[in-house]
Amino acid sequence: MAGRIEDYALIGDMQTAALVCRDGTVDWLCLPRFDSHAVFAGLLGTEEHGFWRLGPEHGEDTGPPAASRRTYRGDSLILESEWDTPRGTVRVIDFMPPREGAPQLVRIVEGVSGRVPMRSALRMRFSYGRIVPWVHKVDGRTVAVAGPDSVWLDTDEETYGEHLTTYSDFTVAPGERVAFSITWEPSHKAPPALHEPEHALEATAEFWREWVEHCTYHGPYREAVVRSLITLKALTYAPTGGIVAAPTTSLPEDIGGSRNWDYRFTWLRDAAITLSSLLRTGYREEARAWREWLLRAVAGDPENLQIMYGIAGERELGEAELDWLPGYENSQPVRVGNGAAHQLQLDVYGEVTEALHLAHMTGLARSDYAAVLQLKLIRYLETHWDQPDEGIWEVRGPRRHFVHSKVMAWVAVDRTIKLIESGDVDGPLERWRDLRDGIHRDVCEKGYDPERNTFTQSYGSKELDASLLLIPQMGFLPPDDKRVVGTIEAIQRELSTEDGFVLRYPTSGEDAGVDGLEGDEGAFLACSFWLADDLAMIGRVDEARELFEKLLSLRNDLGLLAEEWDPRLQRQVGNFPQAFSHVPLIDTALRLTASGAYGG
Length: 600
Known about the structure:
Layout: E1 9-12, E2 17-20, E3 25-30, E4 38-40, E5 51-56, E6 69-72, E7 79-85, E8 88-95, E9 104-114, E10 116-123, H1 126-129, E11 134-138, E12 141-146, E13 149-155, E14 160-162, E15 165-172, E16 177-186, H2 197-212, H3 222-234, E17 236-237, E18 242-243, E19 266-267, H4 268-280, H5 284-298, E20 308-309, E21 320-321, E22 335-336, H6 347-361, H7 368-384, H8 403-421, H9 429-446, E23 448-449, E24 454-455, H10 470-473, H11 482-494, E25 523-524, H12 525-537, H13 541-552, E26 564-566, E27 571-573, H14 579-595
Antiparallel strand pairs: 1-2, 2-3, 3-4, 3-5, 5-10, 6-7, 7-8, 8-9, 9-16, 10-15, 11-12, 12-13, 13-16, 14-15, 17-18, 19-20, 21-22, 23-24, 25-26, 26-27
């Protein structure tokens, strides 16, 4: 049985990632890429769908014990879990070396005290748990083969097969270290080279040590910011610069419900705001790589901009359901691919343009094609900004005139005007100034409810939407504008949970069918960080700090956040870990630090 979402740790190699539970079980790993089929899919099913457990030996009745404590080794993605047992203490070190060749997951067992009996239980199931591979020995190495895939297990310990699972039983004494590793290779190729686990551990630690040294943030929330930056780096697909929204699919927004989506793709919105956070904390190389990914993905067809692409820029992300998987805590369906890829979401033009603008303002080397792309996007918006769309939350109900979409269209035009005014490109300056003014006027007239003194989710609606919190952050209106303050206070009243966290929009009431889905969802963590930002901007800095630190307390023991927080169950929900939660955490920390609004 899978653990709670917050029970998992993330390890990865900037091309794929694994989730390791508190009891030492790897329940999720896709090989060789984030969006490949899972070899361990127990997270979305049962142990029959694949897992790798490594921990102290236990009885059948008691089940595997949770680690007594766990932590990342310093500022790295090397996980260390320790168990205190009646026979002594043992440590398991889990990591994935930054990839030079084949993807590899390494697990090193280290005796701390006493003599602790240990067991490794490895059950590989290819194609998201559907296919039992052919497991056999080749030159003393264990290999599992199915179709195009092979996974090689290497260890000096004896292994044996039982119940379609590969086991190893051994005992560790103080100072002893026992290594296991699995390596993926296309099945038609020669076996992967044997690697030295201890050398790989040293190289991985050095990689993260050097990477974190580039961080320019040294404020009071450094621990939370650095952990979030490491998480964002782990979600980056190194060969192309694409950034996945999360390494998982179908972790539910509503436990037992159907709001289950595949997030192993590059949303332009998520990636653009990630780029902004990286730039503001010193990571220019990642920003440059993402900009190059964007130019390749959109190249030649900016008029048909998609809201998301595959991590190498793929356009076809067809959605399907895996009916052999029961889903996380019976939350069905389990989906792969994402049918929202071809939705019209006008806000994306604003996020992409804002990211390109920030890259330009922070001195990232000029790209002529980036400027050309920006001009093409605005020419498209000229004739499409006034259309209804699916909006930032990619609703599957009818299209609407979402206020946030119009605001972000305004952002796209505004930032492009600034680019032209800087003299770096030529464009119809007066025409686009008129366009900017026209969009602004339209939003203020049609998207604002003067009786309640608040902007609304869409034109003609009475409902609210947490994306309206971005109005002052994007510079659409100043923070002290009465309409901005009224909107912030309305969202606090009408979209906040008892804990003070923020829902995206109502899932019951007049506009309950806006997203075309059944069920509810938890508080959306990004929106809650946006509220903290806005509170700071309007001078309520103590309240902003209090909310921010409350949000930090929702992180698991390793500093990781999923997409949402379920206030009823008091647990994390949604795909995990979620870039769209960690980015605003960084942004709010930067804002509060700049304002001096922090404790201590």
